[in-house]
Task: structure prediction
Amino acid sequence: MKFTSGISIFSRQMFIRQYIPALISALVFAVADMADALVVGNRMGAVGLAAIAFSLPIYMFYNVIMHSFGLGGAIHFSNKMASGDEEGARRSFQGVFITLMIISVFIAIFGNLGIKGLMFILGAPKSNPVLYSATKTYLGIILAAAPLFFFDYSIGYYLRNDDFEKESSIASGIGNVLDLSLNIILVLFLDMGVKGAALATLFGLVVGSSIQFAFLFRKTSHLKLFPFKPEFCNLLSIYKIGISSFVSYIYSFVFILIGNNAMIRLAGDSGVAVFDVVINLGNMAYYLFNAVSTSTQPIISTYEGECNYDECDKIENVSTCVNALTSFILMFLFVVFAPLICNLFGLYDPATVEYGSLSIRIYSLCLLFVGLNLAMSNYYAARNISIEPFMIATLRGIAILVPAALICIRFGKNAFWFAYIFTELLTYIIIRIHRKRHPVINKRMDKERILDIMLGSDISRLGPAIEDIEMFCEKWGANPKQLYYIQMTVEEVCSAIITNGFKSPLVNRTNFGYNVIELTLVAAENNDLFLHIRDNAIFFNPFDMNKKALKDIENKDSDFNALGMDVIKQKAKSFYYRRFQGFNTMVVKI
Result:
């Protein structure tokens, strides 16, 4: 993987560890997300696709809430964990969880009570009784399933930030496979139409949510529901962080209403059906791009919390490269197989296939800039910066897209699709100009206050590292006690890791040998010193070494290390350890 050659061994392994299950999950999600349209389209044709298309704005509304709280909450959780505040991270999670459940139950009840008014807003035509009835049936079940949607999608963000990325992918994969399987059984074999498609989605959510819920009770999980002390004071800032990236779903709500009404006027039911196909393909592309975002977000958020800014920026370059490669692959597939794609969605009429193929090919031309824009948005959001993701979402979701669509509609049904290209290209140009004029340095500490050191398993390198640390601490006015204890912490922790953790060679060799220790020392403006330590040793927590353990340890060096750990725990303002992404990570405040 050459695109990862510029990043550290830690970043490389964390990205691969996150990306592979995220990519598999994205592919399963994409297929499951299109399952309703694929199966219903083949059974009911254009009418079935149109019924689902009229319900799409409700999905967009769901996404605004569940993804915003999910991503924002997960970023807040990750930052809290990186700083060693496990209790604060848990309480924040509980607050978000309860909030989402209350909102979703309200939607499920009052959405179904007011479904006729909702149908009017969505534009479902009463003049077409078959289409109107199908839309109402599908929509009613989707509204009732709101609590399941909110839990399933939001909890996935938290699990990926709590080192359960594989488990989250497995749970979502099982739920989506069940969704697809039941779609085939209920719609194709039992001929239940859109009702069968909605029930398949419902059952898939039940299973996926149940599996993910079970992971909360694993011993290694930090996402605890008990003791139940939810914190609500950060909800607004959490939602602000998340919605800056997902406000686009609000805009999608508006744009889909415009698109549905435009297509039914310009091309009838078949036009709405083609629009639904393009929307599904766009969602599939988004899932694949989002696999990169969900893979890099925990890494960027963690590094940002540790003030390791160089690795943050390198990870952004990785996501940009992967998204660009993904977009080229999708463009090739969409252009070459456009007629086959139309057939897969149940469109066989020659005129509809011809129009659908042209629409897909025009739309595919915007995918490169979609990937690049989403990579930039994720980078900002993962760093707790909300303005730029909001700008990107607003530009590509409404500020450019809606005017471009309204203009293109005037030139006919074929010109409508060029609105996507103009939108993504102009958004990319505007954000690049903005980024050049306003570098992404806000909210970051002065780099002069940060010292990064890489060590191997050669204990003789500790001496020069401690000398560098001494000069750094003196530069920023550390008092004699701080200087003594920070030197002691580095020496004792690193020697303990080398002695006890590096017992067997690892698979990947680095410039430092088989074993690597990364130190990030931060001199805060309030004169506190924060030491972040990461190593690729076997599971080993130096802070577990204590006086009581001395009786069971024969190694003389280990005896001394255990005594040193006991002193550090007494003198440090705080200390924290966790096994994250396959590495030992520690933070000590002195």
Q: What stands out?
A: The first helix runs from residue 9 to 44. The chain is about 70% helix and 5% strand.
